[in-house]
Design brief:
4 helices; three-stranded antiparallel β-sheet; single chain; about 80 residues; globular
Length: about 80
C-alpha cells in the first residue's frame, strides 16, 4: 500500500501545532524534510507525522526543541 501524503494545514492540525511553528521547526532545526508537490507545496508522509507527534510530545513534557533535534542526531542519546 502506498504511503499517503498530507499538506501542511492537515499535518499541523493532526499534530496539534500551528503551521508557522511547523515551518520554524523545519527551518531552524531540520526535524523533518517534507517533499514538495509539483505545485511547490510541502507534503508530509505518515512517518513524518508520527515523528512530529513524538517531537511535540517531548516538547510538551519539557524538552526543548533544540535538545530534541540534538537527540535525533546523536546516537548516544536515547530517543
Amino acid at each position: 500500500m502506498a504511503e499517503r501524503h498530507y499538506r501542511i494545514n492537515v499535518v499541523a492540525e493532526m499534530v496539534g501545532i500551528s503551521e508557522s511553528l511547523l515551518r520554524a521547526w523545519e527551518r531552524r532545526y531540520g526535524v523533518v524534510k517534507p517533499r514538495r508537490s509539483p505545485g511547490g507545496f510541502r507534503v508530509y508522509s505518515d512517518s513524518d507525522i508520527e515523528l512530529l507527534k513524538r517531537i511535540h510530545q517531548l516538547v510538551r513534557e519539557g524538552m526543548s526543541i533544540g535538545d530534541v533535534e540534538m537527540s535525533q542526531t546523536n546516537p548516544n542519546l536515547v530517543w
